[in-house]
Structures are given as C-alpha cells and as structure tokens.
Amino acid sequence: MNLTIRFSPLIFLYSFIVLVIFTALRNLTTIYMGIVGLGLIIFLIKNLSSIYKFHQSFLPYYLFIFMTFFVIIWSFFYMQSLEPISGIPRILLMPLLALILLLHVRDDKDFETLLKVICFCFLVGALSLIYQFFFGTVSWFAASATRGVLVRYTSILGSLTVFGSIVGYLVILIYGPLNLFKNALSRFIFLTSLLVAMALSLSKTSMLIFGIASILLLFYNLRYEGLSIKAGNLSLFILLILSIPIIITFNPTLQTYASSLLTIVAGIDASSISSSLVDVNDVRTSTLSWYSITERLYGFTLLAYKEYGNFLWLFGVGLKGGAGVMGMEGISAHNGFLELFLMGGPIYLLITILMILDLQFFLLRDIKNKLSATFFLLNSIFIIIAIVTSGALFQPSISILFWLSLAYVYNKRIRSYKLSE
C-alpha cells in the first residue's frame, strides 16, 4: 500500500502567516523578528521579476508603498537621530506581506483556505485568553493589566487591545456569506470560545464591534439572502444563550467578569437582571461614554497637534506619529486613520482612504460573489476598528484580512484583464 501525503504548495506561506499573526512570539525569542524578516525576503525574491511589472489598477497600493517609504525617510530628517530605525519593521511588515499574498495566492480556493487559517489563529487567540483565566498569565505574552480588581489578559495575538478588535471578524467568518464552517457544532465551539474570551478581555471595543458585525451581517442577509436561519444553528445558539447564566453561577470570578463587562459597556447594574450576576462598582469609571468616544475620534489627535504644531499639515512627524505602535515615544492618536495623518500628513491619510475605497467599491460591485461579499463585510468592520484603534493598518491580526482582500481584488483584476485580451 503506497501512502502519499500531499501538502498544499502554499503550506510554507500559510505557516509564515501564522507566525506573523502570533506576534507575542517576539517576546519569547529575540530571533522572531529575524525569522519574519528572512521569510519576507525569501518570498519576495521568489517572485522578484513580477515585482517590477507595473499594473495601473494597482496604483493606490503603489502610492501607499511610496508614501510609506517617504514617511520612513522623513522620520530621520524630522527627528535627526537613528531612533526611527525601531519602527521600520513595524510599518513595512504588513504592506510587504500584502505584496507577497498578491504574488503567490491566485485561486479563490486558496483565499478561502487562508481565511480558515486566519480564523484558526483567532480561535487560538481566544483559547489563550481562556487558558490564562484557569492557569495564570503566560510570562512571554504582553503585560496584562487590571480593570477595577479584575485582570485583563492579553493573548498570543498581541497587546491588550488586539483581541477585542478582531471579534467582529470572527462573527463574519463563522456566520458570514462564505459559510466557511459547514458543521453547526464547529460554529458553536467557535462562538462559545469567542464569547467567553470577550468577557475575559473586559474590552469595550469587543462588545461594540461584536454588535456592529452582527447588525451588518443581519442587513446583508436581509438584502441578499433573505432571513433564513438553519435549525441546527438556531438551536445551538439558543442553547448557548440559555447556558450562560448557568455556567457563570458556578464560578464567582466569572460572575464578576460578566457583570463588569455589562457595567463597562452600558453602565448596567447586572445584579438587577439576574441573581447569578453581581453588582460591580469599581469599574464604573471605565464605562463607555460619549466623552471616551470623542477622545478616540479626535481628542488625542488635538493633543498631538498642540505638541507637534503645523508640521502635521506638511509631511507629519514621521514614525514618531505612530508612537507606541512604531515602538517609539510620542502621543498616540488612538485612531488608526488620524495616526496616518500624524505620521505622513494629509497626503498619507488621503492615499490610504483612496486605497480602501477602491477595494470596497470593487467588492460591492461583485457582492453576489460569496468571497467578495465576505471581504466587503470584513473590510467594513476593519474601517470601524481603524477609527478607534491605533496601528490598525499595521498590527498583523487587525490588518491581515484587509491586506488579504487587497491581494484578492488585484488578482481578480489581473484575471479579468487577461480574459479581455
């Protein structure tokens, strides 16, 4: 009997993407960034001849790459020191990974497989949060913090804010138009892990993004699919909702986390809803408010403007404008779009918006294609995340699906041009 195991030709690319998404690994070993950098170089060299081919339809991406290199160079002139060197790998990693995806991933099935790989990584991120709740913090993860008296755990995906930012992606990937996971039980496992990890993250953003993703998916189904819910999915979802109060009753700490999350997001006294929940007073100062929203929308950027002055209207202040996201000291905008304004001025921001809109208009025109519809919904979530999250365009877990959608759209354009010749 001849047993042959066949691996996908893209297995090394899949493995590389997993390595990039699990950014906490850089705290485990100093050679992590070296391995990632070497991987980038190898994949780029493999298709070196294709890099020099100019495609007019890729113009927004080319402009973005050009401005990104300009921001790097301008950083040294603005700061007149070598400090910006630390930010170069952070700002280049994901845009260059997009180029690799564009050069190597061509078939729709490969894009679907990549979505499953990324979804698996997000599940591992959720499980890494749950693991720490039962067994204690992992020493090589990013530093945890507290909200009230409760620990806010980080994950293998990165800092405190990362997991809360990607929960909307999981909603779309699990229940979206592509139907990545056919089995209702696997969907149930994903959703359960997601909800528990959300509670343990104590993230206001996670609840906001989860709600927005659910509403977007509902509108999509009403518009393009009709409101159809499979009996298996519905029964498992109802079972999950009914089981939550029972589960948290057996663990006082879980009660406190659940109550805290309700208090933070909506200021709700959870003890008035169910006796299995408790009133939590020491997190009320963290409750989501209009003031906290406006601070992220423009408040922190105004502070940066007072600090840096009119340089921002010219070319920005380079990598220093990215602050901690670029591994540097500075004032963070806490807004992924205005952060680009701080780094490269209005030109960098406008080019990025042009690139995003170019993708979204293409995907919207092709919305009846399940894969295109999935990327359209994912990018819609990404845009919302970027408004309230620093480094959204450069953090691997947050931006990987956006850059993958860019490779998908540009490859579809290449195929359409070849067919029209």
Write a short abstract of this structure.
With 421 residues, the chain is mostly helical.
Key structural traits:
two-stranded antiparallel sheet; 2 domains; 67% helix; 421 residues; mainly alpha
Account of the protein in words:
This protein has 2 domains: 9-104 and 293-416, no CATH class; 130-288, no CATH class. The chain has 421 residues and is mostly helical. 67% of the residues lie in helices and 1% in strands. Strand 1 and strand 2 (150-152) form a beta hairpin. The protein is built from 16 helices and 2 strands. The longest helix is centred in the C-terminal third of the chain and has 30 residues, at 336-365. A two-stranded antiparallel sheet has the order 1-2. Mean pLDDT is 82; it is low at 1-6 and 273-280. It is globular and about 55 Å long.
